[in-house]
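Need the bound structure for pyridoxal-5'-phosphate, inputs here:
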Amino acid sequence: MNDFDAVDPLAHVRKLFDLDDDVVYLDGNSLGAPPRAVAERMQEVVRQQWGRRLIRSWSEGWWEAPQRVGDKVGRLIGAAPGQVVVGDSTSVNIFKALMAAVRGTDRAEIVVDAGTFPTDGYIARSVASLTGLELRPAPLDALELSDATAVVLLNHVDYRTGRLADMAALTGQAHAVGAKVVWDLCHSAGVLPIELDALGVDLAVGCTYKFLNGGPGSPAFIYVPTAAQPTFRQPLTGWTGHRAPFAMAESYEPDPGVAQARCGTPDILSMLALDAALDVWDEVSLVDVRTKGLKLTAYFRSLVEDLPGVEVITPSDDWRGHQISLRHPDAAEVMRELIARDVIGDHRPPDVLRFGFAPLYVRYSDVERAARTLAEVLAS
Ligand SMILES: Cc1ncc(COP(=O)(O)O)c(C=O)c1O
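Answer from helper R.:
Posting the output first, comments after.
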């Protein structure tokens, strides 16, 4: 056993995941691995809750699942209960959040970080054109916010480079000019301590299929702080966000709490797979997870940074998430070769190789094998 694995306080957590021992999985930042408990729970949900209880299950826990599972996500992102709801996709939740943030504003612009994940930029552009505001992409280090800025949409971790944004400083910068801030936590939820309540973040969204291991296409989340709920108005006024959905009233009246961020019928199978996956966090502290993530990424970096043709584009200081991104002219080909050798990362065009290090199940021995295999591929 690798020396670092022998003293890893999270080493036992890998056993909670259904993973092949001879595969090095470094793509948990795209699709997390399945916790073992998920398959068992899905059997129970399909056979018992759906099969035996049939429609009665809606009143035996299904209806409230988006808020209940939302509270579990909330514990991982520094949100007290009653402020997070799970449902829809990140893209849809970005739309709800931005539309709510600019509603009634007399300000002229929406700002998005220039390196944003594409869907955030696409949705922000739609919101701008629907509301008559300008969309201004700006570099994270020079956002140049002003009293014309209604809202800033920021990625906590840059999906391409792995750079971690300073949530405290940037939230403060937006608030200093009276702008709101919406954070996209897709690449940070579950792997580092986040303090949404303490920082006074206005709104946040994120997916659950990456480091939260909810499964392919598992529902996303949206954070609406208690203080903002009375004035939060999102445009997708579906019946499940109604104050009294089963009254079947003619007109829409939003739920007074976070449930107003719901829209249509929740995807219960995916939601309950996520519910089971989140139980893994009962076993770990986010501080340990973050510490291990920094160590894994530092170790990988030290082993690959001098390889021929490789340029590391992930920051070397602690302002990084749990991935290392390398630039290489033959990135697509190199990743194909790595995957053929059971070392799984991913490639982002044109020339970026991404390796994600999910601290709950990635071992230091995986880091060594990935680096060794990369060296072999580059030499061949
Ligand atoms: C930062 C970020 N935002 C959003 C998304 C995707 O959003 P959706 O869940 O709507 O597909 C991703 C997916 O990789 C992402 O990395």
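Comments: Residues 286-304 form the longest helix (19 residues). The pocket of pyridoxal-5'-phosphate is lined by residues 89-91, 117, 119-120, 155, 159, 184, 186-187, 207, 220 (CB under 6 Å).
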